[in-house]
From TrEMBL:
Any one GO MF annotation of this record: ATP hydrolysis activity
The protein's name: ABC-2 type transport system ATP-binding protein
Domain ABC transporter: start-end pairs: 4-229
PROSITE patterns, sorted: ABC_TRANSPORTER_1, ABC_TRANSPORTER_2
Origin species: Cytobacillus oceanisediminis
Length: 301
């Protein structure tokens, strides 16, 4: 069942159209990544879905919304959340719970429950101004779900964190997938691949591809052979690729990636050629294209 359906969504700032007719649905119980480079329109899209910004045209329909008011159905964490530094973590969650319509008793109980869920119960009486970046993000996620929304939207939740804080938040998102639908924006492809079931590729305000991780990989992923030689890697890769149908070549420093359709046939021919010429091979690795390769292929169409 779709939690929300988006049709023909557009947004213009002065003479620049930044969102160019988005159409997609978010299904209950899924973790979905809104993936795109900086400036692709991710934050604008989330602001429209959260009601913080009005679209110029198009519709946003939430399942179960009464008279079009969907605020009780969503939770939102902006890219740069702001806290009252003088409040403790517990006080902040109780405060946001009451803002969301919870009674004082329910807000207190829910705040304690979420402090434990996000892993900062030991710091509940510490002022938020003393929290680390990772702790603040976890507190921000807790406030976004305190009223048990059907959809939680997180705008770049890990982009400003150090590796340790990033790992904490990604692990928390794995837990949240069991409770609610998640839509989070990111330009970090590895994060999307790690925690998401579905991907929305946004480029220049347009949705250029969408689907489950397996669907996208089956559609766009290619087999590749990575070669590294002691010297002249680019030259040797070009010569070897002329012997067998290669769809494309990517040179990255001293590594050459040869993309092929028939991996077994290419492997035998390439190894035979390298051995017969006694080329100074350091590395020969067979793999498949990453999510980053898929993204670059999609946006360059």
């Amino acid at each position: 069942m779709p939690v929300v359906s988006i049709n023909g969504l557009k947004k213009r700032f002065q003479d620049q159209e930044v969102i160019k007719g988005l159409d997609f649905q978010l299904t209950e119980g899924k973790c979905v990544a809104l993936l795109g480079a900086n400036g692709a329109g991710k934050t604008t899209t989330l602001k429209m879905l959260s009601g913080l910004m009005k679209p110029d045209s198009g519709t946003i329909v939430f399942e179960g919304a009464e008279k079009g008011d969907f605020r009780s159905l969503i939770g939102y964490l902006p890219q740069y959340p702001v806290f009252y530094d003088w409040m403790t973590g517990r006080e902040f969650l109780e405060y946001t719970g009451k803002l969301a319509g919870l009674t004082n008793k329910v807000a207190k109980g829910r705040a304690q429950e979420l402090l434990e869920l996000v892993g900062i119960a030991d710091a509940k009486n510490r002022r938020t101004g003393k929290y680390s970046g990772g702790m603040k993000q976890r507190l921000g996620i807790a406030q976004a779900i305190i009223h048990r929304p059907k959809l939680v939207m997180l705008d770049e939740p890990v982009s400003a964190l150090d590796p340790f804080g990033r790992r904490e938040v990604l692990e928390l998102m794995e837990k949240l997938k069991k409770e609610t639908t998640i839509l989070f924006s990111t330009h970090i492809l590895n994060d999307a691949e790690e925690v998401c079931e579905e991907i929305l590729f946004l480029d220049n305000g347009k949705l250029v591809e969408a689907g489950t991780m397996s669907q996208l990989k089956n559609k766009h992923q290619q087999a590749k052979i990575d070669l590294v030689f002691k010297e002249n890697t680019s030259q040797y890769a070009e010569e070897i690729s002329a012997l067998y149908p290669v769809t494309s070549i990517k040179i990255d420093g001293e590594k050459a990636s040869l993309f092929v359709e028939d991996i077994e046939g290419a492997k035998k021919l390439f190894l035979t050629e390298i051995a017969s010429r006694n080329l100074p091979l350091i590395k020969f690795e067979i793999s498949r294209t990453s999510l980053e390769d898929v993204f670059m292929k999609v946006v360059q169409k």
